Amino acid sequence: MNYTENYRGIKIDVQTHHVDVSDDVQQEIRNNIDKITRHTNDINFIDVYFKSEGTGSTMVSIVGMRVAIPGSDTFADDKGENWIPLLKSVTEKIIAQLKKTND
């Protein structure tokens, strides 16, 4: 399930690999974009990646996010079990990078 949307003037491209993204996760993506925009207004687009690796008890979920801003893009990813906590973790990593860039 890949999709693209325009959220508050920001193009969001969500790419998945054998994963269905629920409405709750889609809303969490938007909530996290709101958090990111508090730290920069110069976002060209955001790519979000969802992927599952392994099988059964070795299944790992992976979330990656690339925020395209003037200069160099910001990227973060994380691995774990649940999409929403992973999105929050990735967003925190992105915000930390943006703070370093703005200092």
Automatic annotation (TrEMBL):
Any GO CC annotation of this UniProt entry: ribosome
InterPro entries: RHF-like (IPR036567), RHF/RaiA (IPR003489)
Domain of life, source organism: Bacteria
Ribosomal protein found in the keyword field: yes
Keywords: Ribonucleoprotein, Ribosomal protein
Record-given protein name: SSU ribosomal protein S30P /sigma 54 modulation protein
Provenance organism: Algoriphagus antarcticus
